[in-house]
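User: Here's a protein and a ligand (glyoxylic acid). What would the complex look like?
Assistant: Let me lay out the input and then the predicted complex.
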Amino acid sequence: MPKQIFMTRRITSRAEEMLRAVGYEVTVSTKDGVLTRDELKTALAQVPYDAVAALLTDTIDADMIAVMPASVKIIANYAVGYNNIDVPAAHARGVVVTNTPNVLTATVAEHTVALILTLASRTAEGDRFIREGKFVGWDPLLLLGTDIKGKTLGLVGAGRIGSEVAGIVHKGFGMNVVYCDVKQNEALEALCGAKFYATHEEVLKVADVVSIHVPLLPTTHHLINAERLALMKKSAILVNTSRGLVVDEIALVAALKSGTIRGAALDVFEFEPKVTPELLTLPNVVVNPHLASATEETRTKMAEMVATNIIETLEGRTAPNAVA
Ligand code: GLV
Ligand code: GLV
């Protein structure tokens, strides 16, 4: 019997093509949207699947893993972040979990830089201004932004993506870089003279642009809260392309309204896909629907990675992107 693969939603066709090319049977959820918990449970119970290709919007907790057919050998997540999967519970059943690192690093970093520039130069506000029919002529005081050249980027988390962002803004805009991470990053320091701080507080105090690049973990949940926002410069901007739950969104709204910080650009949200309604009433906020890795090239490479991880595992070899 051919190996059976379940994909919880259609992704770039490359994954299906690769899986079918090696003779696997691929079932793709036909729902146009995220499967509910019950729908996912039902879908998984239909066939003794060998592999599941999952998305960051699928909650694969211990309960879900318990109802999966015993035949499942791998859950291949179509994302670099894998906070949606209970990895210890999967491992306890001998199920491999994989993610899609590296291929999206440059894309997410480019998107992050786009958000920084959008906030600093107020391009989203300018776009809205024209669309609302408000442009009546050049105005010396209209929508004054802020330069970023020579200012300080503060990284909350300095892994692959944070380092890539630092490299771009250091080379391109002469930004100084400071960072806090669970470990010191010598490569980042060599790349752009980044200064390591042992605490996030020190980074928040000195940065003009704070960019978040930590995974979602119990230790990073609400890492950016009211107290830490209060440490930031009044002129500083906050950018989040990691996970929404890293920022206390209610506290962020308060900080933006009171002028505690200058602005925020968010690609991810605490209550995703819901966006705290007040955020949308604030002009100094830029919002994107979780798009940071969304380029054709990168989403195709991520799909290839999902297929490769599944094939390697099911052929008895080691998945290249197994998470620990
Ligand atoms: C997207 O958010 C990802 O983790 O790949
Ligand atoms: C994720 O890819 C990271 O290391 O930032």
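Summary: Residues 105-287 form a domain with the Rossmann fold fold (CATH 3.40.50.720).
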